Amino acid sequence: MNRKIFVSAKEVAHRAGVSRSAVSRTFTPGASVSEETRRRVVEAAEALGYHVNHLARGLMRNESGIVCLIVSELDTPYRASLIRALTRQLQSASKVAMLINTDRSDNSVDQALRQAISYRADASIILSGMPDKSITELCVKSGQRLVLINRDEQRDGALRINLHDREAARRAFIAFLRAGCRSFAFANSDVGTPSLMAREEGFRAAGREHGFEITIERYGPTRYQSGVVLAQRLLTREARPDAIFCANDLLACGLMDTARHQFRLTVPDDLCIIGFDDIEQSSWSSYNLTTFSQPVDRIAEEAVSWLAQPILSDENSCKLEAQLVWRGSVRGG
To answer: What is the pTM assigned to this prediction?
Structure first.
């Protein structure tokens, strides 16, 4: 079976009895073309199965419309929701998303990004703090525009989107304090991304401001199973905490299950827990987790709208607020 050859604009023009430029104007938003010509071109295009070659058209303007999404932990609930929001916004802006998975530690990420650059990707959006800074260097050297989400590096001509993580951590501490808690811990992973460390440092600073030392425990990836281990470490201490702020909801879910089923603690009477991200599972009745909601739709809107603007030489930054979602894992919530 022979591979079908794409129908050309020239063939559409011949069938419709119009010029090649008339076909181009018909499929160019805002271009001038008579209604009769438009009708004939559209009918011919539908009969032949013609589709506009946006890649070729874009390359003539030195644009491909391709935006790379450079992602780690893409199978986690929060990351999946952010990818969903970004791809929806990109599609609405007539852009094409190309996904690059950065979970592997070898040079596969570098190779994948170089491949994307060879397709003339216009921009890259880096969705986490995990990829090495050399990745951003490669993007910049290739002439791509760059959006950095939850990263701390300075980069001229790039947009940085971050949350007020320290302020959220302070609010978490105050919530625990008002619930009558007096022994505080922070459960973190070993990943050490800027956003996770900002939450840890903000929670520790809020504790010291009110005369309390915060117990810090870190372990493994930012996953459910790490929350299990963190619970075992924190809840076997001689001075067991009665309030734990978790770096994200997956850690909180693992920690909560272990606290209830292995240590027979009641949440929130014996132990108050706050998470971060507001993933779908946090609202399930089995968790009913008080948490901070990341504004994923707003993050996506800011990223894509900035890419549509003229290139600016200075670094641009956007700070967004995570909203506290009260549920039942904190007394009084």
So the answer is: 0.79
